[in-house]
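WARN retry 2 of 3 for item q-0093 after timeout on previous attempt; input resubmitted unchanged.
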Amino acid sequence: MRLDKFPVIFFLISIICFLTSGLAIAGHGAHKSLSESNIANGDTISISGRILDNHKEPVDEAEVTILVNGKVMDRVETAHNGKYMVRFQLEKGVVQSATIEVEARKTSFKTQTLTFKGSDLAAKGDHYYISEDITLPRVLGPAFWISTIVFVLAYVLIAFELLHRTIAAMIGAALMMLISYTIGTINPAYHIFSFERAIASIDMNVIFLLMGMMIIVGVLKHTGVFQWCAYMAYKLAKGKVFLLTIYLIVFTAVSSAFLDNVTTMLLLTGVAIEICVSLSLNPLYILIPLVLASNAGGTATLIGDPPNIMIGSYAGLTFMDFVKALALICVVAIIALIIMSKLVWGKAYASAKVDNVEEYIRVLKEEYRITDPTLLKYGLGVLAFCVLLFLTHGYWHMEVSVAALMGASVILSIGVLSGKVNLIELIEKDIEWPTLMFFIFLFIIVGAVESTGLLALIADGILELSKGSFIASCALIIWVAAIMSAFVDNIPFTATMLPIVAYLGQVIPGAGNTLWWALALGACFGGNGTIIGASANVVTIGIAEARGYRITFGGFMKTAFPYMIISVLIAHVWLLIFRP
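OK item q-0093 returned
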C-alpha cells in the first residue's frame, strides 16, 4: 500500500514541530503563581530541588505545590530537567513556627509530600531557603494501561502490515493525545502526556538528517552514477558471476554506509535485475545477498541505517564513534556473507553465462553511462564535504543533520539554478514523506509510553534478569534486538529501546558504550532475518515481485535468517572480547 505524497503539508508540520518544540522547552517550568502581592518587609522563602523517578531520571511537567500551615502558597511545574523553584514571602516572625509542605504529583506517579518546619530552613538575613529533591514512585494507573494497549496495537498494525505503518503510527499518536485532552481533562488519571511533551519527544535531528540525505541522493540519481557503478562492476568481473556478486556486495555495503540502505537498494535493484536476466540467472540469487549487504554495511556508520541515526542522536555518539566501534565487525559480517553466498548459490553462479562478454559490456557501457558529468562533479564535491562534516561533527559540537541539510541546500541550488533538476518533482518523488512522518508519529508514541512508565518497567525487567551483569545484559540486548527486529520493523523497536539501554548503561558497572553497540548491531543485523525486518528488504523484494520474481516470506527467511544468526553471533563474540 502506498500513500499519496503531501510535501507541502509535511513541510508545514516540520516547521511547526521545530518551532513548537523550542517553545515547549522554553515554556517548561512556567511559573503558575498563586501568591498575591508581596508583603512589605516580610521574610522571603525560597524552595528548590528536583523531581526524580525511581531511576533517578528527571520528571518534567510534575506539579509542585507549596503549602504553609495547610494554606497553598504557590504552585509550579517542573522544567524538562525536573527542576522546580518557588519564592514567596511571609510575615515577619512567622517562618520559624510554620509547617511547610512540598507536594509533588503527576499522572502515572504516586503523589509524594515532604513536610518540614520553618526552623529547618537555612537563613541569611531575612531570606530563608532549602533545596529538596523528591522521588516519585511509578504507578500503573489508567494512563499506563491505555498507552500500553495503544502502543501494542500500533505495533501489531505495523508488524503484520494491516495498515501502512505511517497511518498506524499516526492513529496511535493522535489517539493518545486525544484521550489525554478529553477523558484526561475530566479525570487526570487518564492524562497520558501533554501536547508540549509530545512535540518535545520528536527528534528533529533524525528527521532533518534523513530529509537532507534523501535530497542529496535524489539529485545524484539524475546523473546516472549508480547505474554506471553497476556497469563497472560487471566490466571488472568480465562475465564471472560470482566475482560480479562480490563486487556488487562490496559496492552495496559501502554505499549503504555513506548514503542509506533503502536508497541504495532502490537504485541498484532494477540494474541488478537486468544484468541477471542477461545472464539467465534468477535475480533473487543476487538481490538477496545485496539486500543483506545493505543492512550489514549500513550498520558501520551513524548515517547508514535509521536505527543508528536514532541511537547516535539519543546517546550523543559521533560518526567516528560508530566507525571505530562497528566498521570492522561489519567487514567480518560481509566476508561471512560472501562465503555463504558461494555455498548457497555457487552452482547457480557457475551455470550463468553470457555468450559474448565483450559485446554485452559495450551494451552496458552505452545504456548505463554518466548522463550529467557536470552535476555529478558538483554533487560528489558536496557529498564529500558532508562526509567530512560527518567525520568531524563531534569536534564542532554540531548535529549531523546540520551537515546534511547544508549539503542538500547547496546541491539542490546547483541543480535547480542549472535547470537540470526539477524542484517540485524532486520534492514529491525523491523525498520519502511517509517515512519521515512515520518517524515523527513514532517518536510521539514512544514518548507516551516513556511518560507513563512502560519503558521503565521493561528496563527494570531486563536489569532483574541480568542480575546487573554486563555479560548477561549485552546478551539480552543484542539477541532480543535481533529476534524482535527480524519480525518487527527495527525502527519502532529501536525507538522503544533507547531509554531502556540508556538506563542500563548507567547502572551496570563497566558497560560504557558497549550496550549501545549491542543495540545497534542487534537491530541492524536482525533486520536481515525476514522480509519485513528492514525497510530495504521490503523495497527490494517488492521491486523484484513487480518484475515477476516473487519470493515468499519463508523462502527469504530460509536463507536470510541463518545469516542473521551468524552475523549476530559474530557481533556478540566481538563485543564480549573487545568491549568497544
